[in-house]
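Note to self: user wants both folds in one dump. Writing first protein now.
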Amino acid sequence: MNKFYLSLALITAFSYADMSKDQNKTTHDVKLDEITVEATRTQSDLSKYAGSVGILKSDDLKAKTNVIEAIGDIPGVDIGSDKGREIGRRFYIRGFGSGDDERVIIMQDGVKRSVGLYSNMISTFRTDADILKRVEVVKGASSILHGSGAIGGIVSLKTKDAHDYLLDDENFGAMLGGRIESNHMHSARAAIYGRTPEGTLGNTSMDALIYGKKAWHGKIKLADGGSYSADPKVPYNFNNEMIRTLFFKGGVNFADSHRIELGVFDFNEELDTLWQTLNNNDEDLFVKGKLEQRDLTFNYFYKPLSDLVDLSFRAYKADSKYNRGWEWDESMSKGNKQAVYVNDEDRYGFALKNDSKFQTGFLEHNLVTGVDYDNRQEDALWIREYKDLTPTAGFNSHPNEYNNLGLYFQDIISWQDLELTLGGRYDRYERKVKKNTSTKFTDSRFSPRVALAYTVFDSLTFLGGYSESFRAPTPHETSSEGYVNRMYYYLPNPNLKSETAKEYEVGLSFVKDEIFGDDSLYLKGVYFYGKIKDMISLKAVPELGTPPVEPGDRGLDPSQYGRYENVDDAVRHGFEISANYKIDAFRIGSSYERLKVYDKKTKEDLSHHASKLQLHLGYSPLRNLDIDFHANHYLNPHSNPASYVSRGTTYYYVDKHFTLADVKVTYKMPKGVIGFLSGANISFGVNNIFDKQYINAAGTTTSTNVGRGRNFYLDLEMRF
């Protein structure tokens, strides 16, 4: 830790030394109306998008340990209610996220990720924040262009390429970087990259990036001494993780209008952890595990001079696996000697899209059309050894297969200050459970979207939109049977219907430059209201009696039967308001969000959320130096119901306010300063400055999930 504080002091001193040379210069000139891409699959003005989108860039990601922590600062996104391990994080987007397979779409360079690899004991995007140049979060059902399931929203992760590392007119370069955190984390990374000099290959050029990283994550210090109500308090969560990332992206441009890209992403995490990484802190449940993610991508782009054609084709193959197990001696757990549990997921798919711009009379069109296909196959291996039983393999609703085919179009039609969006998506899905006899489920649906943006006085835009999205039942929801967990004896339900979300959004935005001089104001507010018809939920069915005890002397004695069912319509409504103001070297931003998701019939919450108020202050006193302060204030959630009963014990949902605050300093060292630090990118700061606890609204007053403690960090990246 002494080295950490010394490094922090040296970097601060260097910053002030450079400040004294040039007190009046600043290059922090950022337009406040971002361009959104993933929400519409084409470049469009965020202020005219009838929906809610959050965008993080590379510097924003430096402020947090991982991507899930980073998106928690976006309005409409909530995190927490976990042990803080890299492999086990919870997140919620418009009410859905961890544990909601197929309700939130996660993509890295267009390659889809499942949230938890079936087990729901993990929740990680299986990515590396340091190779990401942009994260875009589209909230709600407003995007029809990315496949069925976007009921909660979409998280799109975009990786860097060689051009994102090369400085000025360089053709070749290298990067060395590292990060250290006071809360038991450190990492090292390196990259080499280059492009062919202009003119050396005629009208052909090439570029390539090779990147590698290792990161170590140790025990997690909890906020304010540990557990909220435990006596004695638990100050740390057990943790030991080592993550290795390898990444390659290369491209060839030829004939002035063609580009081919190849990508390889390899993520490998070895860990000593606990059986349920989200919930457990009992070292008697210690396991060794390995998590893997491998993506192979091929992209082809064709952009001739004509505005009618901007074509892209993507094909990918992605494999994921989580393998963990333990060994116990004869004196433990009724003779159980060994257990191995493996979740395996393989994906492949393709996507073809064209972005066309043209005019019909006085109307301007931006027409996006496309088709995509995704195949997902899951399997599980569950081996247990007992004194009197032979090993068993295979588990529950595995192996299974998902097939998804979609065709979509979207036309953004503009005339003067009016912008009309008309679009739709046709999805057809097939689900198979491949056991002794194959069980198949199929369905199809067309989902429309219409939106309107009308701008008056060149600054004020009125917004309105209607969207639909649907989610097919998973093989686990239709076909789970038997002893899946300690809570229920599962019964299959092959008659489940698909969920359908129908959502309205209305709002306004205001964008104005030079109000009082060199300043900019961005204001946007969106109200949303919708229903999720035939929402699928696991329900207890005690009227069927008491289930049998599992054979094998494992001790599982479920208290009741459980079955996935289509419940009455769920209602989701709320609003988000955000404002950003910049004048000279100062920036100030604030947002407020409110969300309710409840059963239309009973009025009881289906998921629990606290309203969140955010404040952001920024200052750029000199060239390349940014100082930022960010605070999240979570209001009392007032959950309905206020408590629940589990195994005879009553638990009360948390009913307190919480405030977390962070500070970040980012400095880009000018060339020719301090030798080896010339051109370096330096980020340092403190997360949870005041070491305050935070319990997610889904947590209870007895929760030990109080969040990470105060964390100092320093991130240094040097380029040569």
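First done. Writing the second protein, which came from a different request thread.
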Amino acid sequence: MELVKHKSDTSIEEIQAGSIAEIYSTFGLDRTSLKGIASFATGIALKISEEVCQFHRVVPVEEREDGTVVLAMADPLDMVALQIIRSKIGKEVVTVWAEPEDIEFAIGTIFSDKNAFEDTLQDLVEVEEELDEEEEVDEDSIDILRTQATDAPAVVFVNSLLVQAIQERASDIHIEPQENNLRIRLRIDGMLREFPPASRRLQSAVIARIKILADLDIAERRVPQDGRVKFKIMGRSVDVRCSTIPGIYGEKIVMRILDQGSTSLNIDDLGLPKDKLALLKEKSKAATGMILVTGPTGSGKTTTLYSVLNYVNSPQLNIITVEDPVEYRLAGINQVQARAAVGLTFASALRSILRQDPDIVMVGEIRDLETAEIAVKAALTGHMVLSTLHTNNSVATIIRLLNMGIDKYLIVSSISVIVAQRLVRRICTGCREPIKPSADITAFLNRQGVDVSKDTYYKGKGCKQCSGSGYWGRFGIHEMLFMDGTIKELIIADASESEIRKAAEEAGTLSIFMEGIMRARAGITTLEEIIRVA
């Protein structure tokens, strides 16, 4: 047995290959060739370190589904090496025997690829420096903080996560400390999708890295914090808003990605029917009035408003917005960031904006009576006002304004059009196939007065393009209420919501639900998606 000891006088390399094979075969260890392996367990190799791999002539080949790591070793009976590696990776290992020159080649491949990968990420992700004249920065303390989050694993992890999020078209990155790992989820097409978790050992470094980039206090872990950082990722300027909240296993971080390069701000791309699109364009070109866009959070309200502003924008118009936050930067438009902490609320900002000789004013959201009153009066005094409101449909918006305390005469005089909208997922064209609606779906739609027996419906079965989800991208479905004479009379007469809705439907207003059903019949989305969203 002296022949197989790593520290023996006679080295393994000096023994004939046949003798080695015979010795190791008695331990059930067969020779493995590494030359045909396309990729190795790079993540495990990084944990072990290049130095340990070189010294003990070991390379991790793969990590099995049960978590066991397969190690190729020049001396698979080196118990010292196995004990060291087990402690480093915290996993069970099985060994195979490989030629020393094969292992040397594999180690060189893994760690040269690792260096190239880090260099590539460094080229793909750059932090864009922004100067904020309102804030004083202690350069010495910033330098000290940055040194605590510049280790290669944390930098590589955050950069690769950002690149993957952009490639997957994600709107949010969720980093969630759990008991045994760091959970990673991306919101893609409005739905959270889970990705392979990271090691719990990376938690502190990764959180510190993100907090430093977003100018947050890494020493404060007891209270929520909010910040932002601007990156240039794969040549695209991306604004990332970071939010932290303390949890029982550590701080949870959500990174909201505002990627203007992935969002069309062309009004023609909103997906509106031609007749409704023409009316919206006509109303947005008017000198006075109010356009309200409603819907829940994440339904694309701000994108719709930006598209309208982009359509009407011209050097002859003074356009000013007040937003919280300013999501996209629009050339030629004056955008104001609301700052409640210093008294710059929507209402106070709106008062100041009206003294700036505006033609068009956009208020990010009507949240209270004061803001609503100022916005309505601005629409009556020679300004076009655009804003959003959190209501479920267009008619409910009228009732909401009345309940807030806005006079009904002001409502009928100021509001031009109300757009209620939702975002629904589009069926993946790579795996779309016709299906028959289930009995439950059919019964539910029958109760809504929708007959699905005469039409063909579709669903994505899941493919590589859509990562098995069956969906690729989203589009808007809308309900548009134009304030005609009949609707105005009903509001003045204190009609109920159902009476106003009936009159609107008779005038041609199609509900969000029914427009969604029409899109499902056209094979653009699924019935399940319409029921879920609308």
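Dump finished. Worth passing along: The first strand starts at residue 58 and ends at 63.
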